[in-house]
Design a protein that fits this description.
Number of domains: 2
CATH class of the largest domain: Alpha Beta
Structural class: alpha/beta
Number of strands: 13
Largest sheet: 7 strands, parallel
Strand content: 5-15%
CATH superfamily of the largest domain: P-loop containing nucleotide triphosphate hydrolases
Helix content: 25-40%
CATH architecture of the largest domain: 3-Layer(aba) Sandwich
Order of helices and strands: HHEHEHEHEHEHHEHEEHEHEHEEHEH
Radius of gyration: 22 Å
């Protein structure tokens, strides 16, 4: 379906056309008419399906149709990460450029004072992470009583990160009469419970099978010994003349270490993770998009929300602890109709993680053996230390006493007698005396 068949205004169609789009994606042609009609919507959509435009376009149209009265916050979009908030805000500005509506981002990691000043000047659309928004609510800096539309973007990720209590506190500040939109990559039982308490007789739409990956992503597994992963990655980038590569590690310390090593190999690289300041993260992403650096090494904080046009390569330097995060990682490539390749460098320690991912995908991923990097079968698997980095970016909040948060490692089994560990090192090859990795 073409965009000009969806009932959008001339100003919005002009903005869409300026971005080079004419044909709507499945989620867009399903969601936009429903949202324009005023329905509550429960939408299942994977990353890279165009879901952001699916709610920003009709939202902008509805807000502009009723512009009388004093300026107040009329639309609230909640996102799990700062990166996704920035991406959604960019989309709102891009599609709303021909309309006199004001929008802003609210998230932590930066000074609250400029945010307060923008709120005081008046704003129509707020895109926020739950924690910082709730801080403003508690301090009396923001009034949400005029919100006409609430959007929860990547709701499953917000639940995984423990934001459910914050979300419920924010909802208490909103008027009872409003339109609600919930977008999620999966429809877990927790998501459906949240939808029952939030949505009013919603229309449910879905454009992808649960946990399916983009059809255009070519997935490969390259078996390699752990200590030779960086060497193989450098060779792949150099011989293939890859100019733009997004590489995922499990921890921020691993991201920093790999970025330093790749720079030492003459490959311009930056790392992005929760330990970086927001300014550094924004600059790294901007430089990567502009082609000023070839490799961006990221933790799973970047697995969702990063929207990079025509990104050709994603590499899992380390497989994620949580199988669903693999889907979101490789969803950074093959977006908007383009092809892409996702390569996973898998050592013997990660075979169980690979098996879990293949079980989730309901198929085996093709293996490609690289000459010169044959796996040494004498090396025994060692347990992977999950630490706090396994908790999907942040500890859960509000869990009952005695319950175990998702992603927390079980007690380690005693190491087998045949397992080998480098002197003075733990199973991951890092010093035993080094502090455990914090949230990614």
């Amino acid at each position: 379906m073409l965009f000009n068949e969806l009932g959008l205004s001339a100003e919005l169609l002009r903005a869409v056309d300026e971005q080079g789009y004419t044909e709507a994606t499945p989620i867009q042609h399903k969601a936009i008419p429903l949202i324009l009609k005023g329905d509550d919507v429960l939408a299942g959509a994977q990353t890279g399906t165009g879901k952001t435009a699916a709610f920003t376009l009709p939202m902008l149209q509805k807000l502009y149709q009723k512009t009388n009265g004093p300026r107040c916050i009329r639309a609230l979009i909640l996102t799990p990460t700062r990166e996704l908030a920035a991406q959604v805000h960019e989309s709102v500005q891009t599609y709303g450029k021909h309309r006199p509506l004001r929008s802003m981002e609210i998230y932590g990691g930066v000074s609250a004072r400029p945010q307060i000043k923008k709120i005081q000047r008046g704003v129509d659309v707020v895109i926020a992470t739950p924690g910082r928004l709730l801080d403003h609510v508690r301090q009396g800096n923001i009034n949400l009583s005029g919100v006409e539309m609430l959007v929860l973007d990547e709701a499953d990720r917000m639940l995984d990160m423990g934001f459910i209590r914050d979300i419920k506190q924010i909802i208490k500040q909103l008027p009872a009469k409003r339109q609600n939109l919930l977008f999620s990559a999966t429809f877990s039982s927790e998501i459906r419970d949240l939808a029952k308490g939030l949505l009013n007789n919603p229309t449910e739409i879905s454009v992808a099978q649960r946990n399916s990956t983009a059809d255009r992503v070519e997935q490969l597994v390259m078996p390699v010994d752990k200590l030779r992963k960086r060497e193989l990655l450098s060779e792949l980038i150099g011989k293939g003349n890859w100019r733009q590569v997004l590489v995922f590690t499990r921890t921020k310390h691993g991201a920093n270490r790999l970025a330093k090593q790749l720079n030492g190999d003459g490959i311009t690289t930056l790392a992005i993770h929760g330990g970086k300041g927001q300014g550094a993260r924004t600059k790294a992403l901007r430089d990567f998009k502009a082609g000023d650096i070839r490799v961006l090494v990221a933790t799973d904080i970047a697995a969702r929300g990063l929207d990079i046009d025509k990104l050709p390569h994603v590499v899992n330097f380390e497989l994620p602890h949580v199988s669903e995060d693999y889907v979101h990682r490789i969803g950074r490539t093959a977006r908007a109709g383009h092809d892409g390749t996702a390569i996973s460098l898998v050592c013997v320690d990660e075979l169980k993680l690979l098996k879990d991912i293949e079980k989730l995908l309901n198929r085996q991923i093709e293996k490609e053996y690289v000459e010169g990097y044959e796996v040494d079968k004498r090396i025994k698997a060692e347990p992977i230390n999950k630490g706090k980095s396994a908790q999907r970016g942040a500890p859960r909040r509000g869990k009952p006493s005695g319950s175990k948060p998702a992603g927390v490692a079980r007690r380690k089994k005693p190491q087998s007698a045949g397992a080998k560990t480098r002197p003075g090192k733990n199973a991951r090859g890092t010093s035993r005396n080094r502090p455990r990795a914090q949230a990614v």
